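ESCALATION

Customer reports they have been waiting on this structure for their group meeting. Please prioritize. Original submission:
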Amino acid sequence: MAQRNDTTTPRPRRSRPWPLCALVLGALAVMTACGADTADQSAPPGASGASDSGDPAASSVTRSAAHTGRTVPPASHPASSGSASRPVTHSASASVPSSATAAHTTGSRPGARRVCSTEQLRLSLGRKDVGAGNVYMPLVLTNKSTGTCTLTGFPGVSLLDSAGSAIGDPATRRGASRSAVSLAPGASASAMLHTLNEGTSDTPCRRAPARIRAYPPDSFSSMTVPAGSFRVCGGVFEVESVHSGKGA
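Update from on-call: job pushed to the front of the queue and completed.
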């Protein structure tokens, strides 16, 4: 009887055919690629810095990095490249010099004439002239300052009682306006007041004034002077424009 051999001879391992391995590896690659595309499409806007910039080249680089798993350095665009292409607008007022605007609004141009103010003037009455039923009295404005100034046109004149209340209407303008009067320091100009002599007209005289108030031409401040013997009668109270000198 033959002796039994317990040693088992190993069977040779059968290797899998290589086409099957290639097919499995290809399927895994396709699944990996599909999963990457799905993750890339489901990513919220703004998740990638390159996609926010709106640069197509940067977006394609990002997708390639997602497929390959490589890290791509950020794009080397300047931070201010987005704002550099914007047109720069300038305000229209920036081209106008501020000094020119100030000169236009205030009228303070070189060579402009300086209007006499009440601080530069002294008010007085000239000599009264009565004749042919008319009464004339010059209202005198004297330059008491150290600088030259000018007066042009009509002053505003009214009569005041002792309490400072107006007596009747202000004087109306008589005649045409004269040319500007230049007043050097100490020089005078005058505006003639006109009324009628008492009894010339049936219109009664106004009550006697205590003071005469005058607004020099182009002035919003007034000056007063004692009225003396001046009184409005016959319903006539007129003032002429300023002319050089102290009047009659």
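Sent to customer with the following note: Residues 18-42 form the longest helix (25 residues).
Escalation resolved.
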